[in-house]
Structure formats: structure tokens, C-alpha cells
Amino acid sequence: MAKQKRRGHGEGSIYYREGEKRWVASFVLENGKRKYLTGKTQKEALEKLRKAQREYEQGMLATGTRQTVKQYLEYWLEDVHKSRIRLSTYVEYRLMLDKHILPALGQMQLQRLTSEQVEALYARKREEGLSPGSIRNIHTVLHKALEHAVRRSRVARNVCDSVELPRYSRGEARILTKEQAKLLLEQARGHQMEAILTLAVTTGMRRGELLGLHWQDIDFERGSLQVRRTMNRISGHGLRETEPKTAQSRRNIVLPQFVVEVLKEHRARQREECLQAGDAWKDHDLVFSTRRGGFLDPTYLLERFQKLLDEASLPHMRFHELRHSAATMLLSMGINAKVVQELLGHSTISMTLGTYSHVLPGMQRDAMDGLDDFFRE
Fold this sequence. Notes:
Blueprint: E1 12-17, E2 22-28, E3 34-39, H1 42-57, H2 69-81, H3 87-105, H4 115-127, H5 132-151, H6 178-187, H7 194-203, H8 207-211, E4 218-219, E5 224-227, E6 230-234, E7 238-242, E8 251-254, H9 257-277, H10 298-311, H11 321-332, H12 337-344, H13 349-355, H14 360-376
Antiparallel strand pairs: 1-2, 2-3, 4-5, 5-8, 6-7
Helix pairs in contact: 2-3, 2-5, 3-4, 3-5, 7-9, 7-11, 12-13
């Protein structure tokens, strides 16, 4: 009796399974495992086989083991992604999975997840009051996880690619004019908040970058500072210093001379506080600290900021809007957008121009007026 020829990769077979009353088609994958498909008729099973073989040749066929969305997302975040991201980012992703994604999609089969199911989740979250921006953050996490599943051949495609997201419009930021910024700093003169507000208004540094600034990061002779870390409150972990979010966030900032003088005065006041605190002083080398040298709580910073706004008769705003104010003032003064990008630590110039596009029309008008003056001479 002739020996049966061993089937090669991609070759298929079809047979009838009496116990289930179904036709079964299968073919061998490159890893030696067999992919099975079933149909009520021989024709249906054969059509599924041919389709699967075509998708397999094109690299479009999911060949991974069956898992639920919860099983795969847990694996992706805890075993793959956690070691690659900052602690604050991990905590944020963990919260999105536990609170929003897994309760709705966790029990579904990963390979059977559809765009419609994801869109239904987003619609439900919108009804619950989540902002379009928050929903887009959820989408980012789910998209990253499913993109990894595609690369691992757990699913054939990323269903998030065809999901329609809720329309997102950036809220109009409250921006300080140059006159208002000057008024705020005049109100803060001699105040404990003077130095941190001066840096925020002139450099556009983020709140976490300011709170994580150490004296060793400041070069008084050259009039510059280095952004090397950031400090924020992380849920379940308290106040923590971490690495900056991106490589571009680690940057050198040249300071105006008046800012250098404000920092020197701030250092002198802090040394007096250190002497008064005595043994109670906690030396963390922080530029902005409590009166005993400890980490300054972001909530406390915001409270003091709002109080100064009231005293200066200025409208309330988020601390982060001082960053927007700084960028807007610099661009309106004609500072090159590339310089502003580097100062803010944006990863690309398109991010800078996109965020502050409201300043561009005025800059274009100034440029055209300049051309008009030049050619009329």
C-alpha cells in the first residue's frame, strides 16, 4: 500500500464529521498547527477553506489561540506594555481598562470583536457624560492593544481603525494677555508663588516639570535650566518624581535675566525657611517646596494660584493655561515657531502650530504689513 503524501503548509482537506452533522475543512499553518473551519454543507466548508487560505497567504488571517478581550488586554498591559511606559501612564491605562473597557467588552471573544461593539461602548460613555476627549483617550488605549494583537496574529485586523469617534473640539483656552501676565507677576512680587509663576509665564514649563525642578538643574552663571524630571500625584502611589513624558520634554531652557534674579531671591528666601525649620527640614534639593522642604502638592499650588488671580482681579484659569499664555505671547511677538516648539518640549512643530493656530492669522497680517511697508518705500 502506497504511503500517503504528507500535506505541505497551506494545503487543505475536507471531510464530514458524522457526530456533529457538519463538514470540516482544515489546512496546515507554517508553525505546524492546523486551522479548522466548519460548514453545514460541503460547499460552505470549501468556500470558508478557500477564503481562509487566501487570507493566510496575504497575512490577513488571525491564527492565534482563542482569548477573550479581557485575557488579551490584561496580557498586553501587564506583561508587554507595563515595562515600557511611565508609572503614571500605566496607572492611567489600568484605570481605563478597569472602569471603561473591560466591564463592557471584557467577556467577548477577541477574534469576534466588532467595530459596532466598540462604537456602542463609546456611545454609552458619551451618554454617561464622558467628554469626547476622554473617549478618545479610551480609544487610544484600546487601539494600541488591538494593534499589538494584529502583530501577534491574534486578530486579522484592528477593528478600531473603522470606528467613528465622537467629534472633538478643543475648548477655548483662557489666555493671559501680556498686560495681564505682567499684572499677575506684579501681584505675586515677594510672594512664595512669585518664582514658580514667573517661570510658568516666561518659559511655558508644565506644572509637573516646575514641581520636579531641582536646584542642581539650574545654571545661574549661564542663565539656563535643564528639564530632567516631572512630579505629579499618581493614584495609589502619592506624589512621585518620574522621567519626562518624551525625549523632547528633556530640554535646556535659556532664561531671561530678570527670571534669573527672581530665582536667586527665591533661593535666598528658601534658605531662611530652612534655618527656621531646623531639623524638621527635608532636603530634597527642590526649587519649589513646602516651608519644610517637602514636595509641594499640586492641589495646594492651584489653590494659591486661584487666590492670586482673585487678588489681581484676573479671571480664574487652569494652571496649565499659563503654558498656553507663554506660547501665545512668544508667537505674537514674532518668535520663530521652531524656537517655541523646543522651548515647550513639543515632539513636532506641527503640534505647536496646531495647538496655537489661533495666533497665526495675526502673524500673517503683521508679515503682510511688513511687506507692504517695504515695497512702498
